[in-house]
Amino acid sequence: KLSLRLKTVADYVHRESVMADIGSDHAYLPCYLVLENQVAYAIAGEVNEGPYQSALKEVQSANLQTKISVRKGDGLEVISPNEADVITICGMGGQLITSILENGKSKLAGVKRLVLQPNVGADSIRKWLIKEGWTLTHEEILKEDGKIYEVLVADIQEGVQPYTKDESLELLLGPYLMKQKNKTFIEKWKGELEQWNKIMLQMESSQSPDLMERKQQLLKRIESVEEVLKS
Ligand code: SAM
């Protein structure tokens, strides 16, 4: 059975599309999508030998070789331009996801949707999407086995970016998530606030000018996030 985390990603993959899951590990997501007849064809990309072998094994044991191509390579290197409609990249840090997209930009021709699931650092993805002209269209936050995950969906169609007044705060928290403010969102940012307050305490005693500036920035961030949680 697919995890809630990957099921949330799966729900945003277009019907009948060709999808590529980059960093697929066991290829659970492509196998699920093909078995459910949700996609026409899937590509599972892996850079590391161990996970690549796991993906091959999973696809063979489900007898899905004609519907899923397992490929070894770094990031988007495994696909050709105009081959995939939807790309999913899940279970990594936001910065790694961003660098995979940045390094593979030429392969994004023809891609209509990106479904990205960062474990941390979603803000770096939101910034990259704006820079590259992708419109953030949906966000989800969920908790599974004690961990909190975010899912970001971006479409190539021209549309209105969801950002409004305080863009830097929206990049950090997620423009849709901060509006919706569900209990998982509140739990995540309460946890972050606790961490930041601990760091503040540690910095409190220092007078170095360097730290003064960082303290100011952190204080400002703490205050604006507290404001969002309160309102
Ligand atoms: N996507 C699966 C999931 O969400 O359950 C697996 C996540 S696993 C934590 C991350 C996977 O990404 C690993 O199997 C790793 O080998 C792969 N990976 C890391 N960097 C990669 C890259 N540049 N290109 C392709 N795969 C990569």
Automatic annotation (TrEMBL):
SUPFAM superfamilies: S-adenosyl-L-methionine-dependent methyltransferases (SSF53335). It holds the Pfam family TrmK. This is tRNA (Adenine(22)-N(1))-methyltransferase TrmK. It comes from Fictibacillus terranigra.
